[in-house]
Amino acid sequence: ALNDEILLDGEGQVKALICLGGNPMVAFPDQDKTKAAMDKLELLVCVDLYKSATAKLADYIIAPTISLERDDMTMLTDTWYDVPYAHYTKAVLPRNPQSREEWEIYWELSHRSGIPIDLPGGPLDPTTRPSKYDVLKLINAHSRIPVDVMRDKGKGHIYDEVDVRVEPDRGDGAAKLQLLPEGVAEEITEVYEENIWRDGKIIDDDREFTHLLISRRLKHVFNSSGQQLTNLQKKGTTNPAYMNPADLEALGIESGDLVEIEGAAGMLVGVTEAAKDVKPGVISMAHAWGDTPGNWGEVREKGSSTNRLIDDHRTYDKITGQPRMTAIPVNLRQVRMETA
């Protein structure tokens, strides 16, 4: 959707983007469309530790202050715990003077524009530079444990005095979940009546394919994060195209060979790896790897972007708008190493 908001001319068109550690070039569906969107922006700013595929296209790259260089506290992960745990910590390393925290970037914009930033505890004054502690107090103004208390504790702590319980009835107890929203039944019927899968053929955009590419995770990285770390690179520098050994043998391909994986929407080059837990007829690859379009020469060092096989204008859910991200019909062709 963001790509369309950038590419579509007219009122409300997105013309500037500040990217905080994200990597749309390898994460958004349809890499060529994403490249066109990034190129059309009048301003692209990336706040990142590394020159990612997206940062390579940026007008400005700002070095962020890393976690050990700044005071901070848990504001997301503590919501996942089954006990009332929180952790306030002070910086333990000297800060790189050329780096900026994310809030500082937004405050500088607020300061120059005169537009205050609204936070739960009230607006952040654009005329007077706040401290990090001021910002944290405004962000966590409604915390059941005051930020002052967590700061004085200075370490992770379970606050047993917080009584976590179900809130009283709000008076709408008779409300019911809508298990079958409008349009869902018709969509299920439409999918059920499709016969393109029942005769053993894999058809997409009126073309026949031999395999389905499915998504997966790799344990040593999180999306596009961690791929640049030396110790994690020892566990792998690419997102292998995992295939059943019988499929590789039938195609005359060995683990480590390069293959061209082509779908109706695009093509990528992958590094094969035999995996007995992958069913025949299936290729399994992790997402958020790779580089800018056309950089096949470093597939062993940077991986391949599976979003090259995804389109968001033809194969998407009509109700949610979610594009097809897995079970993508593809064909395979072995690639000579020197031409990849």
From TrEMBL:
Keyword set, alphabetical order: 4Fe-4S, Iron, Iron-sulfur, Metal-binding, Oxidoreductase
Domain called Molybdopterin dinucleotide-binding: residue spans: 213-325
UniProt KW tRNA-binding keyword: no
The protein's required cofactors: [4Fe-4S] cluster
GO molecular function: 4 iron, 4 sulfur cluster binding; metal ion binding; molybdopterin cofactor binding; oxidoreductase activity
Annotated Molybdopterin oxidoreductase domain residues: 11-111
GO cellular component labels: cell envelope
Family annotation (Pfam families): Molybdopterin, Molydop_binding
InterPro entries with a match to the protein in the record: Asp_de-COase-like_dom_sf, MoPterin_dinucl-bd_dom, Mopterin_OxRdtase
Protein's cellular compartments: Cell envelope
Family: Belongs to the prokaryotic molybdopterin-containing oxidoreductase family.
Protein name as catalogued: Molybdopterin dinucleotide-binding domain-containing protein
Organism classification: unclassified sequences, metagenomes, ecological metagenomes
